[in-house]
Amino acid sequence: MTERLRIAVQKKGRLADDSFALLKKCGLRFSVRGGGLLTRVKNLPIDLLLVRDDDIPAFVSTGASDLGIAGENILVEEQLTTEGGLDADVDRRLGFSRCSLCLASETDGAIRRPSDLAGTKIATTYPGVLRKFLKDQNINAKIVEMKGAVELAPSIHIAESICDLVSSGATLEANGLSAFETILNSEAVLIKSARKLSPAKQDIYDKLVRRIDGVTASSDSKYIMLNAPKSALADITAILPGADAPTVIPLAGQDDMVAVQAVCTENVFWETLEQLKAKGARSILVLPIEKMMA
Ligand code: ATP
Ligand code: ZN
Questions:
Q1: Residues with Cβ < 8 Å from 41, sequence gap 6 or more?
Q2: Which residue's CA is minimally distant from atom 4 of ligand 1?
Q3: For 34-162, where are the alpha helices, taking DSSP H only?
Q4: pLDDT band at residue 2 under the 50/70/90 scheme
Q5: 122 membership: H or E segment, kind and range
Q6: For residue 54, which atom of ligand 1 is closest to its CA?
Q7: Ligand 2 center to residue 224 CA distance, Å?
Q8: 113-141: b or e for each residue (b if 16 or more CB lie within 10 Å)?
Q9: Are the beta carbons of 162 and 154 closer than 8 angstroms?
Q10: C-alpha closest to that of 37 among 47, 25, 22
Q11: Contacts by 128-136, CB closer than 8 A, 24 or more apart
Q12: For ligand 1, atom 6, which residue shows the shortest CA distance?
């Protein structure tokens, strides 16, 4: 029987859909319907372990899973709070579920900066990261550990401030709070232990991460096509964001014009198109790239 690589993924929540989407873009065929803990990938020797995000670092560390996808915030918190530490670390960043762990207090209150926290109470679901921050900053404050709904703590006088995840800031604002310090910037990460994989699993891992890198690299990349006056070719290539040597093709019946095609590895904004047009480029097309392999 062939060995199967196991990846722990959040079953339901803010990470789940993007994690499944990434794996599908990597060509994995699976269905997450039904209440099962384990889902078989139909076309590759991979199984998905569908769990709560908080459990993912420990599953990777103990070997219950070979890989995991979770927020860096969860990984760092579990590394700091698990007795004896964890054999689980960031293998690569995945570029989605970006958020920050921030300190926040009442918008018109007295706490404006970390030093104002001395002698006060801070509510959080991240006691490990917060304790380390307070220690590094030499601030003596009390941590009130909660399991959720941290943003309500100041209004019910459980704590003067909170340490919580922020993405748009709308939840804070709705509760009359503002962030005044960022403790950790987070995004989804692929988690792996330092243990050596068996040769069979290593092969599947190599194939998977090559595809993951191809998906992440192509997500910001665009294929750009345009017609340009030969005389403006140097100016136009210089504007193309993150492009290597472009392909230049003659245009039938137009000796002074060429067609230019290039892969731009950075975002192509409207401003870029306007600059290209100002240099004489015409018929500009920007196309999404689905996959890339060097
Ligand atoms: P679970 O049931 O799996 O324990 P949860 O309720 O702890 O889920 P979610 O709210 O689904 O967690 O968030 C999962 C992860 O999504 C977070 O740990 C974080 O990395 C990321 N995330 C991205 N944006 C936000 C946000 N605005 N608020 C909270 N988490 C966010
Ligand atoms: Zn969780």
A1: 23, 28, 29, 30, 47, 48
A2: 52
A3: 56-62, 72-81, 127-136
A4: confident
A5: strand 121-124
A6: 4
A7: 41
A8: ebebbeebbbbbbbbbbbebbbeeeebeb
A9: yes
A10: 47
A11: 128/76, 128/77, 128/78, 128/79, 128/80, 128/81, 129/73, 129/76, 129/77, 129/80, 129/101, 129/163, 129/183, 129/184, 130/163, 130/183, 131/80, 132/80, 133/163, 133/183
A12: 13
Q: Are 143 and 122 in contact (CB under 8 A)?
A: yes
Nearest to 267 by CA among 292, 284, 243, 247: 243
Query: How far is residue 288's CA from residue 264's CA, in Å, rounded to a whole number?
Result: 10
Domains of the chain and CATH, by start: 5-95+189-218 (3.40.190.10), 99-186 (3.40.190.10), 220-288 (3.30.70.120)
Identify the pLDDT of residue 36: 86
Structure-block tokens of residue 210? 């090559």
Ligand 1 pocket test, pick from 9, 10, 14, 74 with the greatest ligand atom count within 8 Å of Cβ, gives 14
Residue 237, classed as helix, strand or coil, is helix
Burial zone of 45 (CB within 10 Å; 0-12 exposed, 13-18 middle, 19+ buried): middle
**Residue 35 pLDDT > 90:** no
Going by alpha carbons, the residue nearest to atom 29 of ligand 1 is: 165
The more confidently predicted of residues 103 and 292 is 103
Q: What is the pLDDT of residues 72-119, one digit of tens each?
A: 999 999 999 999 999 999 999 999 999 999 999 999 999 999 999 999
Pick from 167, 184, 175, 61: nearest CA to 131? 184
| pTM listed for this prediction | 0.88
Q: How confident is the model at residue 48 (pLDDT cuts 50, 70, 90)?
A: very high
